[in-house]
């Protein structure tokens, strides 16, 4: 490796004098634009050191001439957001659902806030779109266990179903097989009758007749003589095609044999009154529109 002072024949620039198997490095100057960039960034950094909080000390930091404190800025934004929230929450708390629906400003708040509330509190069971799943009701259809009025939906949110809330709604289907009320054959027969009510089966006339008798003796008190359910008891409508636990023969057999007891937590104390109303309107008006 040589260190001779020489110039490259093609460019006329000096080389460093280093030679790696015929490869030589040009000893060119750093472009002036690079020096300008370095100088400007250093001057800018120096100015920022002077103006803004920069250097950590033992138990504090340099505040800078401007005295900017990001914690204060963030806290101010949080307080402004809280004041805005308190403003519309006060209106929502005293307004009825119909009054909220009629005021565009409040509905804008509902539409902006509800998806987050729903996602945080409801979607784990009922799904992000409200269609539910096995064991969890579909909330965007027209089949309501406890009724779909504003008051009924709000009460379900506040007090839950079979929860520890003193005003909770209580509903339980007996385990007709486990309790020895019906035999396995009787369960299959009345199950086929129930499926026939919902248009899911076409049993033989003899099974229909026996099933109707068993239904009248054991099921009609909750589900109604015509099978349309009783909202005051939370008993589902058996004449539609909406089956929370499944409408196939095996699922219906398990439901009758083992019984069912749904559960929903009481949200009073965890959700404010305004938040409950937001969710009720979202559930009754907005989710069905999205679907």
From TrEMBL:
Question: What biological-process terms (Gene Ontology) are attached?
Answer: oxidative phosphorylation; proton transmembrane transport
| TM spans (from-to) | 33-52
- Which organism was this protein described from? Citreimonas salinaria
Q: In which pathway does it act?
A: Energy metabolism; oxidative phosphorylation
Instruction: Name the job this protein performs.
Output: C-type cytochrome. Part of the cbb3-type cytochrome c oxidase complex.
Location, primary (coarse class): membrane
Name of the featured protein = Cbb3-type cytochrome c oxidase subunit
The cofactor remark states: Binds 2 heme C groups per subunit.
Outline the extent of the Cytochrome c domain: 97-198, 206-287
Any keyword Cytoplasm? no
A cellular component annotation (GO) from this entry: plasma membrane
């Amino acid at each position: 490796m040589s260190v001779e002072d020489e110039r490259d024949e093609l460019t006329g620039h000096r080389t460093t004098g280093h030679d790696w198997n015929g490869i030589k490095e040009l000893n060119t100057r750093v472009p002036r634009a690079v020096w300008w960039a370095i100088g400007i960034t250093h001057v800018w950094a120096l100015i920022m050191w002077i103006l803004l909080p920069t250097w950590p000390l033992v138990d504090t930091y340099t505040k800078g001439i401007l005295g900017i404190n990001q914690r204060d800025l963030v806290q101010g934004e949080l307080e402004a957001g809280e004041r805005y929230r308190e403003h519309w929450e006060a209106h929502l708390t005293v307004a009825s659902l119909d009054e909220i629906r009629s005021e565009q400003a409040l509905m804008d708040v509902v539409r902006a806030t509800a998806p987050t509330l729903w996602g945080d509190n409801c979607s784990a069971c009922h799904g992000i779109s409200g269609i539910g799943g096995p064991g969890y009701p579909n909330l965007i259809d027209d089949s309501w266990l406890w009724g779909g009025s504003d008051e009924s939906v709000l009460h379900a949110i506040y007090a839950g179903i079979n929860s520890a809330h003193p005003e909770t709604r209580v509903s339980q289907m007996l385990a007709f097989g486990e309790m020895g009320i019906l035999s396995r054959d009787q369960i299959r027969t009345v199950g086929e009758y129930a499926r026939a009510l919902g248009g899911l089966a076409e049993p033989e006339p003899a099974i229909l007749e026996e099933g109707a008798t068993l239904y009248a003796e054991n099921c009609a008190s909750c589900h109604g003589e015509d099978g349309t359910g009783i909202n005051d008891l939370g008993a589902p409508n058996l004449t539609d095609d909406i089956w929370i636990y499944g409408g196939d023969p095996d699922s219906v057999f398990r439901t009758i044999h083992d019984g069912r007891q749904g559960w929903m937590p009481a949200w009073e104390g965890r959700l404010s009154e305004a938040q409950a109303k937001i969710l009720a309107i979202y559930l009754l008006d907005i989710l069905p529109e999205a679907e």
